[in-house]
Amino acid sequence: MSAEIDVLVLGGAGVDTIVHVPELPLPFADSYPISPGIETRAGQTGDFLALGLHSLGLRVHHLDLLGDDDAGALVRALHAERGIALTTVPQPAGTKRAVNLVDPLGRRLSLYDATRSAPEDRLPDPLVRELATAARHAHVSITHPCAHALPTLRACGVTVSTDLHDWDGENPYHEPFAHAADVVFVSATRLPDPEPVMRRITERGRARVVVATAGAEGAFLLADGELHHVPTAAPPAPVVDSNGAGDAFAAAFLWAWLAGEPPLRAARFGAVAGAHACTVPATRHDPITRAQLLSQGGPGHA
């Protein structure tokens, strides 16, 4: 029986408040006038990944805990507006929130509200099993309810990806995600030399592919034991905001990889999508489309 879902996205649903600041780090002061102002919108890492995959034509289903609050209503409305399936589990602590400080260069500092979760939070195993059985692939956010879902995903036989974000290569919290996934994304922000960490992931876990994104330096891809450097793609417009660039990279990579493209070509598509995301203000949802990705990503198709 063919899969009903191309990618099941677990976790990462929430709401961000975007605050534009004159510089980062922000020097202490009593007050700052800011422009273009403060705006709250739905969209954290799982939301952006789901939007990116959907924009590229994949069938996406998003699963996460969500509060019965105004923030949760924003997340539900975003998915309904875009036609992305969303299954929610009640979250008494409320929907995940963050404040993103964005400087004129497009750099971002995120402040996450740690009160919007509890140690006992779980995604119900029967629900995870039902959705995973209908899926080709699962992408797992690094929240602890998703960590508890990893064994079920493996038992269902789907391939798994995860994004470790700015892991330092040492924090043990990230290791279950790193070692259970077939495709691992990580930011090189806290990895002066990402190669040893990338190789350790493949040696200790299941990963066939590891990608370390490095901002203006491009990305590093480890596949079949060989390390490649993937240069940045030229952005199609002025860079305004790096928010969501990593999620855009991952979405385009997975789109190509699931279509059978080799990892290096998938990473080049990821670079194009990441560059596009940097031209989109953090207050907007405008992921790259398949037509745009193909036109900017070179000849051929995934």
From TrEMBL:
Do you know which Gene3D superfamilies this protein is assigned to? 3.40.1190.20
Statement: the UniProt record of this protein carries the keyword Protease? no
Q: Which InterPro entries match?
A: Carboh/pur_kinase_PfkB_CS, PfkB_dom, Ribokinase-like
The record's keywords, sorted A to Z, are: Kinase, Transferase
Ranges where the Carbohydrate kinase PfkB domain occurs? 193-285
Protein origin, superkingdom: Bacteria
Q: Does the UniProt entry include the keyword Chaperone?
A: no
GO MF, one example: kinase activity
Q: Which PANTHER family match?
A: PFKB DOMAIN PROTEIN (PTHR10584:SF167), SUGAR KINASE (PTHR10584)
Q: What is this protein called?
A: Sugar or nucleoside kinase, ribokinase family
Provide the species name.
Answer: Streptacidiphilus jiangxiensis
